[in-house]
Amino acid sequence: IRTACFSVRKKMASFVLRRAAGRLAPNSLQRWASAAAVPLTESLPYYEGAEPDSRKPPEGVKVHLTSHRSKRQVSDFFDQVTKLSNGVTVASLETHSFSSTLSVYVRAGSRFETYSQQGLSHLLKKAAFLAAGGRSTFRVFREIDHVGGSLSAANTREHVVYRAQLLRGNEDLALDILSKAVVSPDLRDWEIQDLTPRLALEVTAHEDDPESSITETLHGTAFRNALGNSVLTPRFNLGHVTASDLRAYMDEWFVGRRITLVGIGVDHQELVSRAESSFSSVREGPSSDEETCHYCGGGEVHVPSRSGLTHAAIVSKREPVSLSSEQDVLLAGVLQHLMGTGESVKWGSSPSRLVKAGSEAIDTPFDACALNFSYSDNGLFGFYVVSEPQNAGRLLQAVMQEFSSVAKGDVSDADLTRAKNQLKARYLMGVEQSTSLSDSIAAQLTQNGDYTPLTTTNQKVDAITKDAIVQFAKSVFATRSTFVARGNLSATPRMQQLLEGVSLR
């Protein structure tokens, strides 16, 4: 038996080598073998099949070098924004890459839903690329698949996002599909009803995930309206939303003033030209008339279960609270990294202050990280912990005491520098992905009407002082807090107990 198995393996290896040799250029196996023998300190021999890209960008066009040796940032070349006559904003970044990403952001997230409309934005995400503009659902995905592209959709508390990623040269098809999904979806009742089981499955999955469940509960408890709406469809609305409900919602919120088109790896003038025809039927819509979100706080929610762990989160309103205040966003980001954002290296130890404080308080496995939620007119900051039930109280007390020490000025230069570097690294790594870069561009354009280059943002991060961080920390828990706990709550303290020993002065 052993002899037979060895013979089979030998034949398979011979077959693989023959197939590989047939696909490579003459003498390529010999070249490959010699290249493998070259020490890592020396340059590899020239390989004919690895010729550099010979395409040249037009003269006068600024190019982002994708090499890691380039010192210029991708955001330095972002300077093209056009507003169409109907209010649609078109922004682009030419990277001269082989692929393109087109994203349509509609400011129509869950915060704009009324009580009876809860879950509509979630359903819109699921129904994003159903039959629209003369294309059946099958044809939509067949055409995008034929050109090697992909379609995706997402919904947040403030936006519904439609996105296409595909090889360059197929932007006409992608934009046609995206615009039809936004402007003229067919929205047939039977197709909408078919989505109910998928919605129910996603809702159940989120309910079973402690972190997702606590996040939704935090928002529902902290805000009286708007941002308190869940991004998920509530169970009482599953199967009760009709196509006419979706049409009415889209007629109200899917207007030119609330739509932003962002293209990565596209020519700006071509994108504008295509957008003018694709979104020509979109009405401009009235001036922004959004309901102001009110933070109420002071709420405490305990959800007991048979879980072997305790999950808990405590947050409070940030001051100031608006995304339009860039300084507020940067201060919150630095403070979050100063306290700790969780494990960043698998199986590694985190140097964050929260982990150090927790390790001194308990001797069993745990996790602790800072929470930071930013929205256009409000924000939350706080902490999330996971531990064994018997140690939940001591861990929460240790986390709050550590934050109290920061608010009193216990911030070393080394800790502050590390937090700044981590925030800048997060921003820099974010622009490596076209989707993250699109999200950043759209968020700033939607809120401020402009985009701040990343180099400028990083300079502002470097300029943040210890005094500014301390003052920001003092403002966090100066308002009423919100506390949510889930799991085995046998030793979980009440919110008042946590706040009694915390002094911010």
UniProtKB/TrEMBL annotation:
Stretches assigned to the Peptidase M16 N-terminal domain: 90-234
Domain Peptidase M16 C-terminal: residue ranges: 241-423
Principal subcellular localisation of the protein: mitochondrion
Any one cellular-component term (Gene Ontology): mitochondrion
Pfam families recorded: Peptidase_M16, Peptidase_M16_C
KW Transit peptide (keyword) present: yes
Entry keyword set: Mitochondrion, Transit peptide
InterPro entries associated with the record: Metalloenz_LuxS/M16, MPP/UQCRC_Complex, Pept_M16_N, Peptidase_M16_C
Domain of life from the UniProt record: Eukaryota
Subcellular location: Mitochondrion
Protein known as: Cytochrome b-c1 complex subunit 2, mitochondrial
